[in-house]
Write a structure and sequence with these properties.
By secondary structure, the chain is an alpha+beta fold. It has three domains: 55 residues, no CATH class; 106 residues, Beta Barrel (OB fold (Dihydrolipoamide Acetyltransferase, E2P)); 152 residues, OB fold (Dihydrolipoamide Acetyltransferase, E2P) (Beta Barrel). 26% of the residues lie in helices and 34% in strands.
Length: 349
């Protein structure tokens, strides 16, 4: 694929000691020399060759489209629009301490997370790379995220560059607006409603999976010295049971505790409250319904929607699940979702 004249001039300038003006002059001169029979790009190619530069380094793009990136690649060059830029974070691994940051870039074929370490973090810290900008990644390497998706990492020989030139084929930032419903965990804040998150189940709490409710109104029932009562209805002969399960979801940007009540816990564990009660009773272990299913759920990918509240007890955010959207996200459906957004965008134009 031929690059634009601008980009060719830029590349020639990078690789020769000439200024852009000098190169443009040479290109013009070459066109005149050849009786204007050649395009400026063609002339630029000849100028580059006369300077002893590698043809492919000048005109051929090695840049990959995002959809063709898979884990385990080296020397990955890619260009995309930064659609999200996350705050810089610190890490400590044994003796090593440092900073990293991540961003999501997108092209017309998809989006991908880019993880930036040490030297490149500064650009993000200084606000030199912000959403909406075009960024070029040079010599990145790819690995698999916790969700099993490819992500690009920048090593010591890699480069992250903000690019001021516009690349027409890249989706505009607005194309990602409909995705706001789906957010990254790092973006969640107290008071958020109806946000969708997607991540991996990192941990399941082995706590008692039941709580007692009033059989009349469904509100939580409380026991005082052997007598059950509901705040609204007063004394209760026998409470009903509901299930509750909490787990930690991680999407690479952060993790959050998510709580599933009632039918959502049933859905998550794949068991009815009645069956779970029976298992607990027969085994003499109330936690058994969770213990039995833990192995099967850990590491699974999950998509849920719900609300975020600050929990004063744990001193951190808690995600109250309102809908369990999927326990086995289908990559095809996810890709379709992305394309739909692009189509929407194109329909507007
Ligand atoms: Zn009641």
């Amino acid at each position: 694929m031929f690059k634009s004249l601008d980009e060719m001039v830029h590349r020639i300038a990078e690789k020769s000691k000439l200024s852009k003006e000098e190169i443009l002059e040479r290109i013009k001169a070459k066109q005149i020399e050849l009786g204007q029979l050649i395009t400026p790009e063609g002339a630029a190619y000849i100028v580059a060759k006369e300077l002893g530069l590698d043809f492919f380094a000048i005109v051929e793009t090695k840049e990959l489209k995002i959809k063709s990136i898979i884990p385990g690649m080296k020397n990955v060059d890619v260009v995309g629009r930064a659609v999200k830029v996350f705050p810089v974070r610190e890490f400590q691994k044994e003796e090593r301490k440092g900073k990293y940051a991540s961003l999501i870039i997108a092209d017309e074929t998809g989006s991908i997370r880019v993880v930036v370490w040490s030297k490149d973090v500064e650009q993000i810290e200084k606000g030199e790379i912000i959403p909406g900008m075009i960024v070029r990644v040079r010599s990145g390497y790819t690995k698999s995220s916790l969700q099993g998706e490819p992500e690009i990492h920048l090593g010591t020989r890699s480069k992250l560059m903000a690019d001021t030139s516009d690349v027409k084929t890249l989706p505009e930032l607005e194309a990602f607006a409909p995705e706001l419903e789906r957010v990254y965990i790092a973006e969640l804040k107290d008071g958020d409603e109806k946000k969708e998150i997607r991540g991996t189940i990192l941990q399941i709490f082995e706590s008692r999976p039941f709580f007692e409710v009033c059989p009349k109104c469904g509100k939580r029932a409380e026991e005082k010295s052997g007598v059950w009562a509901c705040r609204a209805c007063g004394q209760i002969e026998r409470p009903d049971y509901r299930m509750v399960t909490s787990l930690i979801i991680d999407d690479g940007t952060d993790n959050i505790r998510a709580t599933f009540f009632g039918r959502l816990a049933e859905q998550l564990l794949g068991i009815s409250t009645g069956e779970a009660l029976k298992i607990s009773k027969e085994s003499g272990n109330e936690k058994k319904p969770i213990i039995d299913r833990k192995e099967n759920l850990l590491g699974k990918e999950i998509i849920v929607s719900g609300e975020t509240r600050f929990d004063t007890f744990s001193n951190r955010l808690n995600f109250r699940v309102r809908e369990l959207i999927s326990l086995h996200p289908d990559p095809k459906a996810e890709a379709k979702r992305f394309l739909k957004q692009l189509e929407k965008k194109l329909a507007i134009e």
